[in-house]
Design brief:
Helices cover 80% and strands 0% of the residues. It contains eleven helices and no strands.
Length: 285
């Protein structure tokens, strides 16, 4: 079976250029052997999480060699983080449980790598409190940037697919958590789903304050008006964050990444948020 990129991604409009032209090409090459091995999407997600946590361990060790190995592991985690979705779409195994596990795994990788980067920078500079504050500020910025990207990507895809895309829906996540509790599902599934629902709840509260009411456009009109903005929002997604951390680890300059996230990415998020709140002639009442 010959698969093309457009068959295994959600939409080119929600992909940042680095992810689209670098990550996705590698992920597409890995997709066939992954399918041949019979790995499920959740198993690929687990491998991605293991690689990410392994990268964090390398950052804590902090030698020049371990930093390079950690950069390689983190890049591997980023690649596998896209392969799981491709496998789910090809095998028709996409589910809300899979979304929950993937979201919780992303959270785990990012928390551990930020903490490890802060520790390494503190040891390197002999100013652990400054390193910790920089890492905390960068992590909070990343969380809010990712919330904005997830919201706009989910909204764009919902309009693009005529409502078929259901990822990132808070009510569905809460319903799933309640169903798993009633069915006494395995503890790890209940914990991961609870983390996912909590993430979506925090995202929705944050978005109501930042964005306000959604524009009254529907379907094709929404897609046409927001396509350019969506491609800019994509730079706030998880893939650019992972790529930037990979480069920072390889160069042993986590301080540069933290400042870029706090200042540069926040400036982009603020400018796009202001643009999203200003109604155009087509959306003004």
């Amino acid at each position: 079976m010959q698969l093309t990129l457009d068959q295994v991604i959600k939409s080119r409009d929600v992909e940042d250029p680095v992810n689209l032209h670098v990550h996705r090409s590698i992920q597409l090459l890995l997709l066939r052997p992954t399918l041949a091995l019979g790995l499920t999407p959740n198993q690929v997600t687990f491998l991605s999480a293991c690689a990410g946590v392994g990268a964090a361990a390398c950052f804590v060790r902090g030698t020049p060699l371990s930093m390079l190995v950690g950069a390689g592991l983190l890049f591997s985690s980023a690649i596998l983080d896209g392969v799981d979705g491709m496998v789910a779409r090809v095998t028709k195994k996409s589910s809300e449980t899979g979304h929950a596990i993937d979201g919780a795994a992303d959270w785990l990788v990012n928390v551990t790598t930020f903490a490890a980067a802060a520790y390494h920078l503190g040891e390197q500079t002999r100013h652990p409190w400054i390193a910790a504050l920089l890492a905390l500020a960068a992590h909070l910025a990343w969380m809010h940037h990712l919330m904005l990207y997830d919201h706009h990507a989910a909204t764009f895809l919902r309009h693009l697919t005529g409502g078929r895309h259901q990822g990132g829906d808070l009510e569905r996540a809460r319903a799933l958590a309640e169903r798993l509790a009633r069915e006494h599902a395995p503890l790890h599934l209940r914990v991961l789903t609870a983390i996912y629902a909590a993430q979506l709840g925090n995202r929705d509260r944050f978005l109501r304050r930042v964005i306000g009411a959604p524009p009254p456009e529907e379907g094709a009109a929404y897609v046409e008006r927001h396509r350019g903005a969506m491609r800019a929002w994509a730079w706030l997604g998880n893939a650019p964050h992972m790529d930037a951390m990979v480069l920072a680890a390889a160069a042993d300059r986590f301080d540069v990444y933290f400042l870029a996230r706090i200042v540069g990415f926040t400036a982009l998020a603020l400018s796009l948020s202001l643009r999203a709140r200003i109604p155009s002639p087509r959306t003004a009442p």
